[in-house]
Amino acid sequence: MSNQKAKLIIFTGPSGVGKGTILTDFFKKVDKNIVYSISSTTRHPRDGEINGMHYFFITKNEFENLIKEDAFLEYANYSGNYYGTSKKFVEEKLSENKSVLLEIELQGALQVMKKCPDAVTIFIKPPTFEELEQRLRGRHSESEEAIQKRLTAAREEIKNADKFHYVIENDIVESAVNKLIEIYDKETK
After folding, report:
1. pLDDT tens profile 115-144
2. 2 lies in a domain?
3. In sequence order, what DSSP letters do the residues of 1-53 get, joined into one string?
4. For residue 183, is it within any domain?
5. What are phi and psi of 69, to 5 degrees?
6. In 10 A of CB 68, how many CB atoms?
7. What is the tally of structural domains in the chain?
8. How many whole angstroms separate alpha carbon 146 and alpha carbon 161?
9. How far lies 33's CA from each of 1, 8, 44, 118, 177, in Å?
10. Which letter, b or e, does each residue of 15-34 get, where b requires 16 or more Cβ atoms within 10 Å of its Cβ?
């Protein structure tokens, strides 16, 4: 649509809150004028994750070289791994009048919010902290130490929800997806 406004959309929330589930449904239901920004990370892929689709899985040395080249719009070290967003990718898509959705950790979201004050910011929160812990444990993909790191980080992240334009509680996935679609339509039409 020519009357669509391309926007940078920052989408964040604690690990285990269901960001990926919400976005999978969201992208099935919205127009094709929005693209998902695939982050680079130094963490190992989880079962079913595909390089270039879910993340670009790279080594710590590769990541640190890209930092030196100022190739990231944002980057963060989260639970012992780097995550970052390609500056070039975001700029290219916005110049093509496509909105770009960044699913990123809080540290990165705050960096982008400073650099891109016109970005639409959305925080996803769990219905309860206990529910978040249950979801993290249900993954069966991390050690107890890693789960505890993520829970400690989540407590701090949730304290920052009021810095975002929109906060969506992910209690019922369909409801959270519908709220995200409403925000997207409101901000880009």
Report:
1. 999 999 999 999 999 999 998 888 888 889
2. no
3. -TTPPP-EEEEE--TTS-HHHHHHHHHHHS-SSEEEEPPEESSPPPTT--BTT
4. yes
5. -85, 0
6. 7
7. 1
8. 23
9. 8, 12, 30, 18, 17
10. bbbbbeebbebbeeebeeeb
Residue 62, both tokens: 């590769």
Domain of 53 in residue numbering reads as 8-188
Strand 99-103 and strand 120-125: pairing? unpaired
Q: For the chain, how many helices (H) and strands (E)?
A: 7, 9
Instruction: Say which CATH number the domain at 177 has.
Output: 3.40.50.300
Nearest to 120, CA basis, from 11, 4, 2:
11
Report if residue 3 sits inside a domain. no
Residue with tokens 């993909």: 141
- Whether 133 contacts 148, CB under 8 Å: no
**109, 16 contact by CB (below 8 A):** no
For 47-102, the pLDDT digits (tens) are 899 998 889 999 999 999 999 999 999 998 877 899 999 998 999 999 999 999 99
Strand partners, 77: 82
Distances (CA, A) of 109 to 4, 61, 160: 24, 23, 11
Asked whether 81 and 63 are in contact (CB, 8 A), the reply is no
Whether 1 is in a domain gets the answer no
